């Protein structure tokens, strides 16, 4: 039976790969989404209008998918892994095909569109979920450097007993480009090497990274109401020495992860406004730390370094 399955699956994938040209189209539509983490501060105009702010973050030549054949997947987990790779590479457009033995959506009209909207958004956002062992440029970091996507097209096909869903996303917005991420990674390795972390305890590593960020990054008050800059990014925090809380927390996330310390990006309320900070695991315990609010302070006067929930005021 296993041999039969291994034989027929490639045939099934091949049939769906050519579906756009030969299959029976049953439904199609378009989906646009803004990253929920920025939905309260960004609009579709900010994201996708040629004069909108976020489009400036992805200036220069677009990083587009280079494959001549659209990849085909028989499981959503494999599709999510592929999407994660495309997003890490900052590809601003890509396509894929899902194949199944059961329909992707049933009903008609709005019912199908609603189901497909949920499928596409879950594929995109689940690919940015944080998971144990994920790279420093994946997980929370990737999610907070993603703005949204526009006009993702789904096309449902039927070929014999097989069901296929072709998804094409023509425009994706990020806060950084592939070249910026490449430079950031190179410079992060240099900075971490300068901190002499080899052989140090998790506590000492965390403290040295925290001291570095709070002493090298200042809050970007000049662009507080200007979304056409990279103020939300770890790139701006490291390369330009200025950012808002997302940039601080993203930089700390990357540096901690690259140093082997478990770290998460946390979003919530801080003093009545939207705010971002981090949680790290030192030993078997978890601690809050907020490099934004400790920025510019001497290590002896830190108020938000490795604090319990009880002692972490905000």
Please tell me about this protein's structure.
The structure is a single chain. With 314 residues, this protein is an alpha+beta fold. It is built from eleven helices and eleven strands. The protein has helices spanning 2-17, 19-22, 44-48, 53-57, 76-88, 110-126, 139-144, 178-194, 202-216, 234-240, 245-258, and strands spanning 24-34, 72-73, 94-100, 146-159, 162-169, 171-174, 218-219, 242-243, 263-270, 273-282, 285-289. Strands 1, 2, 3, 4, 5 and 6 form a six-stranded mixed β-sheet that branches. A three-stranded antiparallel β-sheet has the order 9-10-11, with helices on one face. Strands 7-8 form a two-stranded parallel sheet. Helix 8 packs across helix 10 and helix 10 (234-240) packs across helix 11 (245-258). The protein is elongated. The N and C termini lie far apart (60 Å). The model is unreliable at 1-22 and 51-62 (pLDDT under 50).
Please sum up the structure shown.
This protein is α+β, with helices and mostly antiparallel strands and 314 residues long. 38% of the residues lie in helices and 23% in strands.
Give the SSE map.
Layout (H helix, E strand, L loop, with lengths): L1 H16 L1 H4 L1 E11 L9 H5 L4 H5 L14 E2 L2 H13 L5 E7 L9 H17 L12 H6 L1 E14 L2 E8 L1 E4 L3 H17 L7 H15 L1 E2 L14 H7 L1 E2 L1 H14 L4 E8 L2 E10 L2 E5 L25
Parallel strand pairs: 2-3, 7-8
Antiparallel strand pairs: 1-4, 3-5, 4-5, 4-6, 9-10, 10-11
Helix pairs in contact: 8-10, 9-11, 10-11
Keywords:
314 residues; alpha+beta; three-stranded antiparallel sheet; 11 strands; 38% helix; elongated; disordered N terminus
